[in-house]
Amino acid sequence: MTLAVTGATGHLGGLVIDHLLDRGTPAAEVVALVRDPAKASDLAARGVDVRGFDYDRPDPSALTGVDSMLLVSGTAVGQRLPQHTAVVDAAVEAGVGRLVYTSAPRADASINPVAPDHKATEEYLGASGLPHVILRNGWYHENFLADLDAAAHTGQVLTAAGDGRVASASRSDLAEAAAVVLAGEETGRTYTLTGDVAWSFEDLAGDFSAVLEREVTAVQVAPEEKSAALAGAGLDSGLIGFLVAVDDAIAAGELADRTGELAALIGHPTAPIAETLRSRA
Ligand SMILES: NC(=O)c1ccc[n+]([C@@H]2O[C@H](COP(=O)([O-])OP(=O)(O)OC[C@H]3O[C@@H](n4cnc5c(N)ncnc54)[C@H](OP(=O)(O)O)[C@@H]3O)[C@@H](O)[C@H]2O)c1
Question: Which positions fall inside the NAD(P)-binding domain (predicted)?
Answer without folding.
Answer: 7-182
